[in-house]
Amino acid sequence: MKIAMLARNPDLYSHRRLKEAAEARGHELDIIDTLRCYMNIASRRPAIYYNGEKLPTYDAVIPRIGASITFYGLAVLRQFEMMGVFPLNETIAIGRSRDKLRSLQLLARDGIGLPVTTFAHDPKQTEEVLKLAGHAPLVVKLLEGTQGIGVVLADSDRSAKSVIEAFRGAKVNILVQEFIKEAGGTDIRALVVGGKVVAAMQRQGAEGEFRSNLHRGGSAKKIKISPEERLTAVRAAKTMGLNLCGVDMLRANHGPVVMEVNSSPGIEGVEKATGVDIATRIIELVETKAMPGKTKTKGKG
User: Fold this and answer.
1) What is the CATH architecture of 182-285?
2) What are the strands of the beta sheet with 151-154, ordered from one edge?
3) Domain with CATH 3.30.470.20 in the chain
4) pLDDT digits (tens, 9 = 90+) for 249-280
């Protein structure tokens, strides 16, 4: 099988592992810099060009599209879809997951546990937003934030109001969520591959840090998740339409709540914490799914 991987940095652990796993199973995997691709949109025969040459025919494409290049990355991936190439995650599904507001609305529609979340445009509605969210402590998030950037914990209504008004004054969109105190600065990342949770780790924030992101000094360990947590992760992946994703959850008193569904999860942390060969699981999924006509939308979304 000939596989393309859209990725900017071929030296990242996740990208090296996927290439190794593909080659170990007898496949050819080319790492293609997403931003160096270009396309003739008006052509009746969709094609993608790279480094001055037309790309060859691939059986599958693995999108590893960074949040900062979502728009262009999805345009390139959509071109692959229109060429009949099977995408591990489709453009529509990735687009849903990258839109924090839309993803939460879809998860809520399907009855998946979420923290109380509010959204408003007018800064004059700050008091009502605080009331709906249940008052401080509250988490204020930039809609466009990623990897813990643009996330603020406000420990009083006064500070929450100041943060909200400051963000709104800068004309950026924000979400205001209840703070799940009982989680104790930890969260769970469940890696879903092909509709099954193949590994799960618990991430603990650094001392004095409520965000548990590993690159912010957090630590991770293997964890056994409950049947309810497993079902929540699988349902969240299905709602987003993702074949591969990391589902981040908190353990609230009333059950698991989903914080985010990541369509391009890194596999270094979870492989090292759990010992599970995630890269091979992903390639095995591509093997079973990469059949002609398997793309649901064929680039129409």
Assistant:
1) 2-Layer Sandwich (3.30)
2) 117-118, 174-178, 138-142, 151-154
3) 182-285
4) 999 998 999 999 999 999 999 999 999 999 99
